Amino acid sequence: MINLVLILETNKYKNKMLHNLNLIINSPLEQFEVSSLISIIAPIFGYINITLSNLGLYSLLILFIILSLHIITNNENKILPSK
């Protein structure tokens, strides 16, 4: 009798956790969704829509990191390392 009650209680707990988890994560593909962060409609060449998306932001961040590491480790074209 005690084992049956424990099994029922753990099943209720698991179902409740799965229900709460389902509310947080609707679809696993949402993490790959491209969304617009900043959008500007410029009256240049017939109202061009300039948009920065999350993919563009990540690309600019990686470009900044790579360029900054390149500039820091340049060593000014010396053959021997600096002391």
Q: Pairing-aware structural class of the strands and helices?
A: alpha+beta
Mean of pLDDT: 75
SSE run: HEEH
Assembly classification = single chain
Beta strands, count: 2
Radius of gyration: 27 Å
Strand content: 15-25%
Counted by DSSP, the helix tally is 2
The largest β sheet comes out as: 2 strands, antiparallel
Describe the structure.
It is built from 2 helices and 2 strands; from the N terminus they run αββα. A two-stranded antiparallel ribbon has the order 1-2. It starts with a helix and ends in an 11-residue tail after the last helix. The chain has helices at residues 2-24, 54-72, and strands at 36-42, 48-53. The longest helix is centred in the N-terminal third of the chain and has 23 residues, at 2-24. Helices cover 51% and strands 16% of the residues. The protein is an alpha+beta fold and 83 residues long.
